[in-house]
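User: I'm putting together a teaching handout on how multi-component assemblies are represented. Below are the sequence lines for each component of a complex, exactly as they appear in our records. Could you produce the 3D structure of the whole assembly as structure tokens, so the students can see both representations side by side? Please keep the chain order the same as the input.
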Amino acid sequence: MSVKQKSEAATFFIRGLWEENAIFRQLLGMCPTLAVTGAVKPALTMGLATTFVLVCSNVLVSLMRNVLQAHLRILMFTLTIATFVTIADLILKAFLPDMSETLGPFVPLIIVNCLIIGRAEACGSRKPVGTSLGDALGMGVGFTLGLCALAAIRELLATGAVFELAVLPEKFENWNVMQLPAGAFITLGIMLGLSNHFLKKK
Amino acid sequence: METFSHLIVVFISIAVVNNLVLTKFLGICPYLGVSRKVDMAFGMGCAVTFVMTISATLTWLINIKILVPLELDYLKYIAFIMVIASMVQLVEMYVRKFFPPLYESFGIFLPLIVTNCAILGVCLFIDLWGYGFLEAVVAGLGGGLGFTLAICIMGGIRENLEWADVPDALKGAGITLITAGIMTLAFMGFSGMIKG
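Assistant: Of course. Below is the structure of the complete assembly, with chains in the same order as your input.
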């Protein structure tokens, strides 16, 4: 890998972390974002599984970018992603059966996470392997961080604990609504508003 | 008669009580992206309902009649996504040939149905809950109609939001998400309507 390629990969990595963060900037992959962020543990697992699929499929798509036919590419992306999701699902079932039970159908639903297919289209099918790897890693880590931030807020307000460790004093009245779908929507809405307010001032 | 009333329970359960968008977070992307106008939302809802009913039926048949007897369970996800993608392709070709004006108005949204997680989600939930054939068909239809209901209500609210004085930072996605949160609270009133 030449120096130029290396720096390009690094730029893409950093951009995925914040500037083009999947959750707060691009609003991609919203379904898992809202569904698994009731607590930090499932959110972290989900983030890592998504990162795994994203990295593998982006690299593979990048490797076969020269032989892809334009009209068949979406189908090829989907099949590649579905294969890696099956692998991730089987690994989770084998080593973390409890977690796999909690996440339920949201692991196979990584297949239709628009973040992954979006990166395959925007980056994997155009750039060399190194850049695609950096891009996928950045996007994946950014996505995981976003998930964990949202999950931490919801878990803290819903149970007074983060990562199942008690943080708030016992007197704290738990906000049950934060565990419910309504809490997920409203928290994310407010977080988006805050990030827009403080960061988009130009 | 017994089975008929059971099917109605399945239908109401998936369309209203366990609404895919508002309680299972499926299909959030089109829900946020295509809900700016009521008529667009309704068109999207119809297309999704159609694809969802057929996909739920076909994936049930493929899963129970082909994959399970041959012990090819691990091919499930790939088979499901193939069915959905080819159904969408079929609908697209059919609409383009016979209803060109409708095709024009759908534009990019038709192919996007493939990545609508609600459809794959319904197929997976049907498998998870161990539904029978008729239940699967009804669940597909009910899920689609529930999606249409949610996205149309959202479209109506957002048309009115255009004239509301929303803080700058919350414009766009922020206020839409908060609205969705309040709608979810309203839909929680239905929970407990069906037991079990």
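A couple of points students might notice: Chain B touches chain A through 43 residues (CB under 8 Å). Chain B has a mean pLDDT of 84.
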